[in-house]
Model the fold of this input.
Amino acid sequence: MDNEYSTIKAALLAACKQYVAQRLANAQQAIASASDAAADDTKSSAGDKFETTREMMQQEIGRHQQLLAEAQRMAQVLAALNARPQTGPAKLGSLVETSRGTFFLAISAGRLDIGGQAFWAVSTASPMGHQLIGVEAGDHVVFNNLEYVIHQVV
Done:
């Protein structure tokens, strides 16, 4: 059984890393595109239009830089994550089987399908992740007025 969980957790970690890599690539490409657009916009006789466009491009670059920084933080979390099956209370890297689904405490990547089964990757800082930290088999948590019975933590 431990080997099965090792395989599942390794696949979930790989899927989370792929998710982060895609976010990093998207943010970097969007920053480059906005930078190119700002550089291509030459100053014309309509100076106000140029300044407005340049300011909009700067805001766009800033927004994508924030997304890039968030993706970099996610990558750091994944790099420090221990995905080996473990016993004891749920913590970063745990797989928490509940009556309403199985959660991987890692980053907020949403639904991940592994081997035909759905898992939910959630950050420990998210509301749901926060509820699951420290739970053990047999515990109950309530989230959004729904009760979750903890079946197993690995």
Remarks:
- The chain has three helices and six strands.
- Residues 2-40 form the longest helix (39 residues).
